[in-house]
Design goal:
Layout (H helix, E strand, L loop, with lengths): L1 E8 L11 E3 L11 H8 L5 E6 L5 H11 L8 E9 L12 H11 L4 E7 L13 H11 L6 E6 H4 L3 H9 L4 E6 L7 H9 L6 E4 L4 H13 L17 H10 L6 E4 L3 H16 L7 E8 L9 E2 H11 L4 E5 L11 H11 L6 E6 H4 L6 H5 L5 E6 L11 H10 L4 E4 L2 H7 L8
Parallel strand pairs: 1-3, 3-4, 4-5, 6-7, 7-8, 9-10, 10-11, 10-12, 13-14, 14-15
Antiparallel strand pairs: 1-2
Helix pairs in contact: 2-3, 4-6, 7-8, 10-11
């Protein structure tokens, strides 16, 4: 939990103005509670700190005070907020905090913070559809794109749904960005809050919402979330590792790793592709990227699996720049990779412009007599990937078939195998994971 307070300078814009930061919201310019007293009280708790600056004059002495308090350890999140741009329904003559000075002082005096730059905003009931525009969010992005800190943009909750196309664009520009939905005099509807929750990464949305709306929203979120997926995470990770964090680690690494995503849930395909698209839009994703999923089609049209057509349509609509790596449902492989299974899969992806690599499990190749080379000889974008999953019939499962496949289709075949299997296999001329 974070405690928020408005900060001004004592006697702001009067002959009695001092350099003492106080807890006051305009038009108040005097208070019996100074920022230092407030900080001393908060630092006795375990709560975070959010300071909302109402004048630029209050910023520098407040940062000096934070730096002083940090000598003994603040040891909690610190958010610094100021309205730096004109927002919905606000005329250009309305005063805002100078963005250059605001950011510059933070970098110089106390940079270890989350910065919360916002828009001045006015909600007018007779203009209920007024919202944040693309021009507004692009101007904000131009101001913050160079900053190294995490950024959370405070937005009036009642206006967020109408402005979602623009605000979601802003979120996509950096994984450091988030939104803080704050409640004004007009209550946001629970449905509007659920819309934002269901169309975003929950880890990048904060709520500054009052009762009773907050409790109503929490209750509705629990009910609606019963059948809704969690945000994608890496399977079997402990502690749970969100896919977004995993991608960020890969993309930040100096190692030239490619990305292979095996999507296990239909509900997570679109969200996973959106994460890839975000990284691509930011110029971070230049790694080879493969996308695998068990799909249903033709003779292997089993219930409970996404259809191949929907799989491909989702990829092309959200992030098409992948090697498509489809695999068959487990239920279809009792007889191995039969001729009809492979023919139906090839036919499904025959017209795609992406590279396609059919995913084969080594253990099921033992039961297969399909001659892949003849089927793929006129398919220049097609290849095979042989995978050995440790635990299926031991390390020896599929050895003979993998050897035969390698000898016959070396130029068409990739391998996805653990080092333990590679050592057992006794070969050094394979591409292993």
């Amino acid at each position: 939990m974070i405690l928020e307070a408005d900060v001004n300078i004592q006697g702001h814009n009067t002959l009695n103005e001092t350099n003492i930061p106080i807890m006051a919201h305009p038009p108040d310019i005097y208070s019996d509670n100074t920022l230092e007293e407030w900080l001393d009280a908060v630092l006795k708790s375990k709560k975070g700190i959010k300071l909302d600056f109402k004048s630029l004059q209050a910023l520098e002495p407040s940062l000096d005070l934070l730096r002083k308090k940090n000598e003994t350890g603040i040891n909690r999140p610190v958010w610094l907020n100021a309205d730096i741009l004109h927002g919905p329904n606000v005329p250009n003559f309305w005063p805002v905090i100078n963005a250059t000075r605001f950011f510059g002082l933070i970098q110089t005096k106390f940079p270890d913070v989350t910065i919360s730059p916002g828009w001045t905003v006015l909600y007018l009931p007779f203009y209920p559809n007024a919202t944040y525009t693309q021009a507004m969010v692009e101007k904000m992005y131009d101001h913050v794109r160079h900053l190294p800190q995490k950024i959370t943009f405070p937005v009036l909750a009642v206006m967020v749904k109408n402005g979602w196309p623009h605000l979601s664009w802003l979120l996509k520009q950096s994984s450091r960005f988030s939104l803080t939905l704050w409640q004004g005099s007009e209550n946001p509807t629970v449905n509007d809050l659920l819309f934002i929750r269901d169309n975003s990464n929950p880890q990048r949305i904060y709520y500054d919402i009052y009762e009773p709306v907050l409790s109503q929203f929490k209750e509705a979120a629990i009910i609606s979330g019963i059948d809704k997926p969690k945000f994608p995470v890496v399977e079997d990770s402990d502690p749970e590792l969100p896919l977004q964090d995993c991608l960020e680690l890969i993309l930040a690494s100096k190692n030239p790793w490619g990305i292979y995503l095996r999507v296990k849930s239909q509900t997570q395909l679109a969200v996973s592709l959106q994460l890839l698209q975000q990284a691509y839009d930011m110029g971070l994703l230049y790694h080879p990227t493969w996308l695998n999923m068990d799909i249903a089609h033709g003779i292997f049209n089993f219930q409970g699996y996404m259809t191949g057509q929907e799989f491909l349509r989702t990829i092309n609509q959200i992030f098409p720049h992948v090697t498509v790596a489809p695999s068959w449902p487990q239920e279809a492989l009792d007889q191995g990779y039969t001729l009809q299974l492979v023919k139906d899969m090839i036919k499904l992806f025959q017209g795609t412009w992406q590279d396609v690599s059919l995913q084969l499990q080594a253990v099921y190749l033992e039961r297969s007599e399909t001659r892949f080379k003849s089927l793929l000889q006129n398919q220049p974008r097609f290849s095979l990937t042989v995978e050995h999953r440790t635990g299926k019939e031991g390390l020896s499962g599929g050895n003979h078939s993998v050897t035969s496949l390698h000898k016959g289709y070396r130029e068409l075949t990739f391998y996805n195998m653990a080092n333990s299997y590679k050592n057992n296999f006794g070969s050094t001329d394979y591409a292993f994971n």
